[in-house]
Amino acid sequence: MNLKTTLSITEARKKIFDIANQVQKPGVRYTLTDKGRPKAVLMSAEDFESLQETLEVLSIFPDLDKDIAETHQDLASGEYTKYAALEEILAKDGFVLAEKANKSYALHSKNKTKSRKIFGKDSR
Questions:
Q1: Are 31 and 41 in contact (CB under 8 A)?
Q2: What's the whole-model pTM score?
Q3: Residues with Cβ < 8 Å from 87, sequence gap 6 or more?
Q4: If DSSP codes are grouped into helix, strand and coil, which group holds residue 37?
Q5: Can you give the residue ranges of every domain in the chain?
Q6: pLDDT tens, 69-104?
Q7: How confident is the model at residue 1, as a pLDDT?
Q8: How far is CA 35 from CA 9, 15, 32, 40, 52, in A?
Q9: Which of 8, 55, 48, 54 is nearest to 28 (CA)?
Q10: 33, 56, 71, 81: which has the fewest Cβ within 10 Å?
Q11: 3-state secondary structure the chain
């Protein structure tokens, strides 16, 4: 749903609580006008944050559509060699993935009592 509604600021003032509830629905926003000219836009905080994140991503990756299309083309042709593994990318930036733990920490029925006592959760 992409609903855009235009109201005068005076009219919006009378309906501010209803408008605040309406903009919580995805894609709903209000343009508030003064003397017929747009002055402000009211949208949910979630939609506003999403818009900000989108603008940030687009500023970092201005050719994102082209990059995605090129990646799809490379994957379809089987050309994976120019793409580094996640571990390599992280290592380049100083991150190291932890090894998987050898121990399982799942509680089994025969040692539930012991585990509860260890963590102070003996609720019997």
A1: yes
A2: 0.53
A3: 97
A4: strand
A5: 3-47
A6: 888 888 788 776 666 677 777 777 787 777 655 555
A7: 45
A8: 9, 18, 10, 13, 29
A9: 48
A10: 81
A11: CCEEEEEEHHHHHHCHHHHHHHCCCCCEEEEEEECCEEEEEECCHHHHHHHHHHHHHHHHCCCHHHHHHHHHHHHHHCCCCCCCCHHHHHHHCCCCCCCCCCCCCCCCHHHHHHHHHHCCCCCC
Q: Where are the beta strands (DSSP E) in 1-124?
A: 3-8, 28-34, 37-42
**CA dihedral angle for residue 38, residue 42, residue 47, residue 53, rounded to 10 degrees:** 60
Structure tokens at 48: 């506003």
pLDDT in the model for residue 116: 47
Strands 3-8 and 28-34: parallel
C-beta atoms surrounding 62 within 10 Å = 10
Sheet containing strand 37-42, strands side by side:
3-8, 28-34, 37-42
β-strand partners of 33: 8, 38
The CATH superfamily of 3-47 is: YefM-like domain (3.40.1620.10)
* The pair of three-digit structure tokens given for residue 78, joined into one six-digit string: 């089987």
